[in-house]
């Protein structure tokens, strides 16, 4: 068993319990978290009723091939952008049987940041198949790679909880 903080496991448990009761499934599209969202959800017994699939799309090529992110979007706005996060979440829904999807793309650090896109900048998008969409731009700051990834994981799970309400 991996060790996730209790508050992360509590959020994952809420999603698994609530979505199981409603017959809903989830897909994840992850860049900077590298599969942590799917990992946290699948720590919960019974999660197979809820987790449809996860896409780990660390490179731009993977984002394009697996999620249908447009090359023009990546060229114009970059991988870490609202536009890319929205195309990632749309692609995850379109390429799965899930009722809900969440997507994250960001700069976890310690390097890779810039003045425009500093370490700790993460774009998250969560979408329901009925069209309801949430986007969040988070600026966690240069708090360390693990902390950026855990904060992103927590925010992503909170967004799924909110969509499921």
Mean pLDDT: 97
Oligomer, anyone? single chain
Shape: globular
CATH topology assignment:
Maf protein
CATH-derived architecture? Alpha-Beta Complex
Pfam families: CinA (PF02464)
Keywords: Hydrolase
Domain CinA C-terminal: 10-161
GO molecular function, one term: hydrolase activity
Essential attributes:
single chain; Nicotinamide-nucleotide amidohydrolase family protein; hydrolase; 20% strand; CinA_C; hydrolase activity; Maf protein; CinA-like_C; 6 helices; five-stranded mixed sheet
Structure, explained:
- The protein has helices spanning 6-22, 36-42, 60-67, 71-77, 82-94, 145-163, and strands at 26-30, 51-56, 100-106, 121-128, 133-139.
- The protein has 165 residues and is α/β, with parallel strands linked by helices.
- It has a single domain, classed as Maf protein, CATH 3.90.950.20.
- The mean pLDDT is 97.
- GO terms for molecular function: hydrolase activity.
